[in-house]
Amino acid sequence: MTDKVQAEYFTDLLCIWAYGAQVRLRQLQRDFPRQLMLTARYIPLFACTAERIGKGWADRGGYAGYGRHVREVARDWDHVKVHADIWTGDVPASSTSPHLFLKAVQLLEQQGTIETDPSTVPPSARLDWLLRQSFFAECRNIARHEVQCALAGTLGLPIDAIRAKIDCGEAHAALHVDQEAQQRYQVTGSPTLVLNEGRQRLYGNVGYRILEANVRELLHNPQAGEASWC
Question: How far apart are the C-alpha atoms of 230 and 218, rounded to whole Å?
């Protein structure tokens, strides 16, 4: 038996599947508030939306076609909202910008500039969700720095300190570490939960009971290299 499980959660803020999966991640954290030590990592699936969507979906309607696809994916979801005009109008050019902003907030938490309470959701996770909601439910361009600052301001976060982490390059370095972890674990998509030092990777639209079972198994049997019943 062990009382801690280390996990890394890889997502892209502009990924519809990660948006829909956040409810399961939050439930996992509520069910294992002290046992699950989760590191949020951001990967560049939508680092260039002009390439991924503009060109990648050119024969299927481009941004408008991709927006229809996203609405179709979320059509039967009752736990999140998707705007009727998603991926049209002022669309994000890249997810890298909001990822970088979030890494700066994470750094400030780690260094104690932003206070965190182990019994509550950390500010970086709350901002993560605000950014996702702002894009998918409100169709706001979260790649814009002014949008990021406005959302951070609603949480009372120190905007100047966040900018300083970006300006000095520390946030860029932290984002690079996420991308190195993505390569190390061979994470190909979003969302992906990595457990057991990379031995267990749960990718995509995975049901909550599967996530829960994997965490419980590791708490019960933490020995690396032993077979898991999950």
Answer: 9
Burial of residue 95 (number of CB atoms within 10 Å: 0-12, 13-18, 19+)? buried
- Which amino acid belongs to residue 194? V
Q: What is the pLDDT of residues 141-163, one digit of tens each?
A: 999 999 999 999 999 999 999 99
The SS3 call for residue 201 is strand
Question: Which CA distances in Å does 112 have to 115, 149, 151, 158?
Answer: 6, 20, 21, 12
Q: What residues pair up with 203 in beta bridges, in sequence order?
A: 192
CATH assignment, 5-220: 3.40.30.10
Q: Tell me: the pLDDT tens digits for 44-85?
A: 999 999 999 999 999 999 999 999 999 999 999 999 999 999
Residues of the chain with pLDDT under 70: 1, 222-230
The CA-atom distances, in angstroms, between 196 and each of 41, 205, 216, 230 are 16, 20, 12, 12
Alpha-carbon gap, residue 81 to 195, rounded angstroms = 29
DSSP 8-state code for residue 50? I
**224 and 196 Cβ atoms separated by less than 8 Å:** yes
Q: What is the pLDDT of residue 227?
A: 46
- For residue 53, the SS3 value is helix
Domain boundaries, the chain: 5-220
Note if the pTM is more than 0.90.
Answer: yes
